[in-house]
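Hi everyone,

Forwarding the result from last night's run.
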Amino acid sequence: MDKKKFYVNVGSHEISQIRYDNNDEFTIYATQDEVQTLRNKLDNMSDSDTRAFFRAHVPIMPYHNDKPNDDYDSELTEAFRMMYDLGDKETKQHIEEIGILSDNHL
């Protein structure tokens, strides 16, 4: 499959072929299958975030035992790893500068 250019905004969970407003936080070149995998990771982050929100409102659950937060962090790291692998030079540099993958050895 041919790789196409996509713009990704992690905060809004947006992946688009059309550059619009602030959706170009990261630029990647990916196949449709790769984009779908990245989309699944971003969707999983949303699901984990929702579960963490509800967990935060249950006072008897200890904060340090928070699987939704762990799941969110894991999906976020995997999404950044994927964007690093598929990204252009600027995307790779940006991800290196923010250091999110520093523990995972680029």
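The first helix runs from residue 32 to 56.

Cheers,
N.
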